[in-house]
Amino acid sequence: RVREAVVSTQSTGIGVAPVDAFKPQNTFGLFDMIGNTWEWTSTVYGVDPQTKMPQYTLRGGSYVDSVDGKFNHKADVTTRMGNTADAGSDNISFRCARDATSQDIARNKKQEL
Fold first, then answer.
1. Which of the ends of the chain has fewer CB neighbours closer than 10 A, N or C?
2. pLDDT score recorded for residue 107
3. pTM to 2 decimal places
4. What does the alpha-carbon distance between residue 2 and residue 99 come to, in Å, rounded to a whole number?
């Protein structure tokens, strides 16, 4: 997925791919679970040693990372790092989510059959 996101944006430069640029790789209809941008979470990662500000957990990796970790970070569901709330970059974002409804669950079960 990381390599595909980079290839898809080469004509305009390497960058973030639109959320629906690739079909979901799962039956839940979830897009870009890793490899497009780091997902910013509300989980405290630690404290920045220089600013003493809390760092929040970023997970997953982004389009500037590699699958094997040979450059920058390893893009993987287990990859974590911290950053302060005042930091910003085009490869950091957050995920909007909602609870699944009974209709969502029924639709997913029907697709699995």
1. C
2. 79
3. 0.62
4. 27
At residue 93, φ and ψ (nearest 5 deg) are: -150, -175
**Neighbour-count burial of 20, counting CB atoms closer than 10 A to its CB (0-12 exposed, 13-18 middle, 19+ buried):** exposed
Evaluate if residue 41 carries a pLDDT over 50: yes
Q: Is the pLDDT of residue 73 over 90?
A: no
Q: CA-to-CA distance for 19 and 23, rounded, in angstroms? A: 10
Note the maximum CA span of the chain.
Answer: 54
Q: What is the DSSP string of 9-34?
A: TTTT-S-PPPTTSS--SSTT----SS
- The tokens describing 18, both together, are 């639109």
